[in-house]
Amino acid sequence: MEGIQQSGVDMSLLKDFLDNEPETFCRAFMSHVPRCDSVESNICETFNGYILEEREDGIIDMLEGIRKKLMVRFVDKNKQIARVQRAFCPRIEKRLMVGVEMAKMCTVNPALNDKFEVVVDRKGFVVDMEEHSCTCGYWGLTGIPCHHVVCIRLVSEIGGGCIC
Ligand SMILES: [Zn+2]
Question: Domain SWIM-type spans what residues (predicted)?
């Protein structure tokens, strides 16, 4: 708090921010337990749209309709993923490939106990490979390695401190 006061930030704004449950809308304050970085209500809205017809039924018929609809969906998704010959799902692979590009701007400094400091634009991030965590929070929040982790992996493959 002292550092924030010295930086000239209006402390009443900070107090308002902290009083409004930032863990519900700000990724920096979110719990890492659900492994989901979604801050929108898209999942809820999409599901409500998906069960639109069933919502008009009585409770038992509605639940039975949702159950059947989800069963068909799970079978379809299972067939789709069975055809995929990749190590990761396409969306995850796409995110990792973005991480590979961003990793080119990182420099890795190894520390002890499977920890690393990854520097990007003079900002340091601590990555703990054993704990699967990075101080940027992305890995913990999503379960998908951030570009800092990708950089460490790439550097360990080529045996250097920078991949640029
Ligand atoms: Zn990170």
Answer: 125-157
Residue 14 CA to ligand 1 centre (angstroms): 25
- The range of the structural domain enclosing residue 46 comes to 42-82
Which of 60, 82, 104 is the last residue in one of the domains? 82
Question: What is the Å distance from ligand 1's center to 47 Cα?
Answer: 31
78 Cα–ligand 1 center, Å: 31
Considering the domain architecture, whether residues 58 and 104 belong to the same structural domain is answered as no
The pLDDT score that the predictor gives to residue 159 is: 61
Q: How far is the CA of 37 from the centre of ligand 1 (A)?
A: 14
Sheet holding 115-120, edge to edge: 106-110, 115-120, 123-128, 133-134
Domain boundary among 82, 103, 138: 82
What's the domain count of the chain?
2
Write the pLDDT tens digit of every residue in 45-89.
888 999 999 999 999 999 999 999 999 999 999 998 888 888 888
pLDDT tens column, 118-146:
999 999 999 999 999 999 988 988 888 99
Task: Return the structure tokens found at 16.
Answer: 């308002």
Residue 73 lies in a domain: yes
